Amino acid sequence: MSVRKLSAGDIIEARCTRCRAVTNHRIVAMIEEKVVRVECNTCGGVHNYYPPEKEGKTPKAGSSVSAERKKEAAPRKAVSSKGQSFHEEWESLCAGMEPERAIPYDINGKFKAGDLVEHAVFGLGVVKSVITPNKMEVLFKAGVKLLKCQA
Questions:
Q1: Buried b (16+ CB within 10 A) or exposed e, 50-66
Q2: What is the band of 22 on the pLDDT scale with cuts at 50, 70, 90?
Q3: Which residues of 9-47 are buried (b: 16+ CB within 10 A; e: fewer)?
Q4: Alpha-carbon distance 36 to 113, whole Å?
Q5: In the Cβ-directed half-sphere of 29, how many Cα atoms lie within 13 Å?
Q6: pLDDT above 80 (res 116)
Q7: Domains of the chain (ranges plus CATH)?
Q8: N or C: at which end does the chain have fewer Cβ atoms within 10 angstroms?
Q9: Tens of pLDDT, residues 5-20
């Protein structure tokens, strides 16, 4: 019995990156006698060749299967107080300011530390600092945002 060599266009089994399963694939590219790229017959995705895993093979320590199990087993972390501190700082800074005097945010606008800014998406904020001539840190109720401005 003779063994036929694989060539481009032949059908082989491979692990599909899109289907996430071992399915039939058509060989698209080969380097010498090594299969390099394949096309899935199920979903039509073209990707590098990944041979089907041997049965009975245990997953490696860093494999995605063990990582998923660890992720499920790990307890959820408590919400950090960092978000709460932003909110408290924002409240204290805005307490003495008048919202009607807020400067509407404009990319071409000129701002300085302590200015009250009204942003279309983030709402009312206070300029904490001007970092570079064209960037500033603004504290909003949701947190600190880096916004573009003019010098």
A1: eeeeeeeeeeeeeeeee
A2: very high
A3: eeeeebbbeeeeeebebbbbebeeeebebbbbeeeeeeb
A4: 58
A5: 7
A6: yes
A7: 7-53 (2.30.30.140), 82-148 (2.30.30)
A8: N
A9: 888 889 999 999 888 8
